[in-house]
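Narrative summary of target 7.
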Amino acid sequence: MILSGLYAITTPSQNLPQQVEAAIAGGARVIQYRDKNSDRSLRLQHAQQLKQICSAAKIPLIINDDVELAAGISASGVHLGRDDCAITNARRELGEDAIIGISCYNDFDLAVEAQWQGADYVAFGSFFTSPTKPLAVQADTSLLQRAKQELDIPVVAIGGITTHNGGLLIKAGADMLAVITALFAQADVEQASRSFAQLFLEEKQ
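Modeled conformation, tokenized:
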């Protein structure tokens, strides 16, 4: 599976299924279900709903942090942070075909280690001030350039990304742009998604 394009990361919402459908309609190529605070039953319900939507659209659904939830709904994979489950444990739980992504913040050595352990992609950021994680470490675009030269797996950029600054990150080497607020906080999610998808088309021209 080719991992490229808009990587849409959800935020809790009463209209979550409709928002995800709109994001996919606009051109999102990967969906990550992210909900740090809701109770287990609600998270399971939402994950199952998104699994149906993504499966119908042939779009991978990645679960943030929770390997057990990802396994329980047969999600496409999981995204892990610094303090989450080890890659080898996630692989054993989810299988060889699962997509396992790793947050590497501004640490290139962490990305090298993640690739060695079998990660399918690495994510760097925050590249800009993020309303979701205002205290996140800052990453420089040189990380993306180095990653494209030295790594053999796709690279995701995250953190404060908008349609105005996303093109810079694609040019620097990002295969995917991970977006939360500039997508799901917009009145027209489909149009916002389409605008991000257009950035990748422009870069290919």
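The mean pLDDT is 95.
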